[in-house]
TrEMBL record:
Bilayer-spanning residue ranges: 6-22, 335-353, 373-393, 435-459, 491-512
Bias type Basic and acidic residues, positions: 591-612
Record key words, sorted: Cell membrane, Chaperone, Membrane, Protein transport, Transmembrane, Transmembrane helix, Transport
Highest classification ranks of the organism: Bacteria, Pseudomonadati, Bacteroidota, Chitinophagia, Chitinophagales
Recorded GO CC terms: plasma membrane
Residue numbers spanned by region Disordered: 580-612
Similarity annotation: Belongs to the OXA1/ALB3/YidC family. Type 1 subfamily.
Keyword field contains Flavoprotein: no
GO biological process: protein insertion into membrane; protein transport
A Pfam family: 60KD_IMP
Membrane topology qualifier: Multi-pass membrane protein
Domain called Membrane insertase YidC N-terminal: residue spans: 87-348
Identification of the protein by name: Membrane protein insertase YidC
Length: 612
């Protein structure tokens, strides 16, 4: 490996390390002020009036006067007994409660947690979907605290299931209705908010209704730290803008633009509220909290403003997606929901197109007839190496040419000593006369960077790899641990990943095989190929085993290719003869080289005049 090749791979390594640190650096933003936290918790917790409850117990019958004073037109819904109802298809099971007329638990039937328990996207009283309705004394009630009538599941002709909850006022013909419809084999449930006659209850001038959505994400995967890093809120505005923030880094966000959908994303699953039929949410306010301990990954408190036209019969259609972050499934909704999957972000956002147009189609094609994902990764790696084979071959040819020229370069370095400018000019002349491109070893390495970064994004985000085993790795979507340590090693972790060790070992082997090609006079260039694998050891130790297996396998292929190409394909004598023949040809300078040499000559003249 010549000096320029080392520079190329060093740049590649620097960019890759910078990208990794950019994506894995965790910034713990300051928590919400205690007053904000307390007010949010108070506003969203189930309402319990101990005085009223005691009064009922003592009197034996409800105090209708007191209820009317506190709950206004909705006094009749203040008490009751929660009844359960279930909407279920092959992939989803949603248990509803008449208290609040809302989902109580949401189970994804095809998935389990890392611990092997049912995977629930909603599983506590914290998870609430509630409208804010007016009571007496200018106060607001959360419908999650009221008891709805109805709750009978109906089977529809197309195989869908429907469930209707009604919250009536004291006046006939006035009610709020929640209509849920679950289609066959769908991860989405239609949620229609239907208000009839409430224009007489909603204060005059009010042009929006507040929908409160509280969401709590439980631990589902092996690595809590990685789950929290992937616990995000994504949203898309009606003008097509998609953006997101991470719960660990942002505890409050106000969105004033009209919103098409808003999603709370976990590592491999998400819950998304989608405004249907060309409708949109007027704005949103999101507060977040990340508990310091326990098995709760994160909590969100979201208020969505629904435009209200004060019609006597008002309906706002919403679709709620409860399901996996599966690229093809999300893309089928045709609203950009697949963009919540991190296939390339930051300065390397362009690699998402490599994933979308190359990696994912090939991966899906292979998984269509191969069910062992370890084998799929092997075939995918071979495909990628075949794709970049021209760049790899060019890199080896360039290295061979630089190896032939190395004695002459060493002579020039000895001749000019510390005069780097003179050495550089003569080196350029040598390259030109020999017909050698000094960037031949650098550019192929840089060209491989999009593939490397695309793989870094793709494997940890691929839900297909979740809980898929291969060799000793029990789950290709997380790290493979052959030994869990009773302590934590700084910059490394509390476990040992064998694929990461193999990846590091083969990277060092590649560096060792190329040790004679680097500039031995420059300590940085000499030891750089050995430094990067050690730096990456601690970073990759906690990443998906599918990723480290891919890099290990890619290194093994590189070692084999290097041996085959240099042993049987590249003829060093022929290259030497070609270089000598090139030297005999009249040198033709490009305009760029002429300008470069002219600039270097002027600099030398200036230094000479200063020396006098």
């Amino acid at each position: 490996m010549d000096r320029n090749s080392v520079i190329g791979f060093s740049l590649l390594g620097l960019l890759l390390v910078g990208y990794i640190f950019f994506n894995t650096k965790q910034q713990h933003a300051a928590e919400l002020e205690k007053a904000r936290q307390d007010s949010i918790a108070e506003a969203n917790k189930p309402k319990v009036n101990t005085d009223t409850t005691a009064s009922y117990a003592n009197a034996g019958t409800p105090d209708s006067t007191r209820l009317a004073g506190e709950y206004g037109a909705f006094a009749g819904a203040a008490t009751g007994t929660a009844q359960k109802a279930v909407l279920e298809n092959k992939v989803l099971k949603i248990t509803f409660s008449s208290q609040g007329g809302q989902p109580e638990t949401v189970e994804l039937k095809a998935f389990k947690t890392f611990a092997g328990t049912p995977l629930l996207l909603a599983n506590s009283s914290f998870n609430r979907i509630s409208m804010k309705v007016p009571a007496n004394n200018n106060t607001l009630l959360n419908t999650a605290d009221l008891y709805f009538a109805g709750g009978n599941v109906q089977q529809l002709a197309d195989g869908s299931q429907s469930l209707v909850y009604r919250l009536a006022t004291a006046n006939p013909g006035q009610y709020l209705e929640f209509v849920y419809t679950l289609k066959q084999d769908s991860y989405a449930v239609d949620f229609d908010i239907h208000a009839v006659g409430l224009e007489n209850v909603i204060p005059a001038g009010q042009k929006s209704l507040a929908l409160q959505w509280d969401n709590e994400n439980d631990k589902q995967e092996q690595d809590m730290q990685n789950e929290r890093l992937n616990n995000q809120v994504h949203y898309k505005t009606t003008d097509g803008k998609h953006d997101y923030f991470t719960l660990q880094r942002t505890n409050h966000k106000e969105l004033d633009s009209k919103i098409q959908w808003l999603s709370v994303k976990q590592q491999f699953f998400n819950t998304t509220f989608i405004a249907k039929k060309d409708r949109s949410f007027d704005k949103a306010e999101i507060n977040t909290k990340v508990p310091e301990s326990g098995n709760i990954v994160g909590q969100t408190f979201t208020t969505l403003e629904i435009p209200y036209d004060r019609a006597h019969d008002f309906t706002f259609p919403i679709e709620i997606y409860y399901g996996p972050n599966h690229y093809k499934t999300l893309k089928s909704y045709d609203i950009g929901l697949e963009n919540i999957i991190p296939l390339g972000t930051g300065i390397f956002a362009f690699v998402k197109y490599v994933n979308k147009w190359v990696i994912i189609p090939v991966f899906n094609f292979l998984s269509g007839f191969i069910h062992n994902y370890g084998v799929i990764i092997i075939l995918l790696t071979l495909f990628i190496r075949l794709l970049i084979a021209p760049f790899t071959y060019q890199s080896y040819v360039s290295s061979a040419k630089m190896k032939v020229l190395k004695p002459e370069i060493d002579e020039l370095r000895k001749k000019h000593g510390d005069d780097q400018q003179a050495f550089g000019m003569d080196q350029m002349k040598l390259f030109k006369s020999a017909g050698v491109n000094p960037l031949g070893g650098c550019l192929p390495a840089v060209m491989q960077l999009p593939i490397l970064v695309a793989m870094y994004s793709f494997f940890p985000s691929s839900i297909e790899l979740r809980q898929e085993s291969f060799l000793w790795a029990k789950d290709l979507s997380t790290y493979d641990s052959i030994l869990n340590l009773p302590f934590n090693i700084p910059f490394y972790g509390n476990h040992i990943s064998l694929f990461t060790l193999l990846m590091t070992a083969t990277s060092l082997m590649l560096a060792f095989n190329n040790r004679g090609m680097a500039d031995q006079s420059n300590p940085v260039m000499k030891y750089m190929p050995y430094i990067f694998p050690i730096m990456l050891l601690g970073i990759f130790n906690k990443l998906a085993s599918a990723l480290t297996f891919y890099y290990f396998l890619s290194n093994v292929i590189s070692i084999l290719l290097q041996w085959v190409i240099q042993k049987f394909i590249i003829n060093h004598d022929k290259i030497h003869a070609q270089i000598q023949e090139n030297k005999k040809k009249p040198a033709s300078k490009s305009k760029w080289q002429e300008r470069l040499e002219d600039m270097q000559k002027r600099q030398q003249d200036m230094q000479g005049r200063k020396g006098k």
